Amino acid sequence: MSHTAHIPSHRKPRRSASKLAVRAGVAGGVLSTLAMAGTASASPSAEPVAETTLEMPVLNLDLGADVSSAVTVAAENTRLAAVEGELTAQEESARTGAAAEAKQAKEEAQKKADAEKAEKTAKAEGDRKAEAERSSRSSGSERTTLKSAAAPQGSGTVSAPATGSAAAIVNFARAQVGKAYVMGGTGPSSFDCSGLVQAAYRQAGISLPRMSQAQSSAGTSVSLSALQPGDILYWGSKGSAYHVAIYVGGGKFVGAQNPSTGIVERNLSYDKPTGAVRVL
Question: Is 164-278 assigned to CATH 3.40.50.300?
Answer without folding.
Answer: no
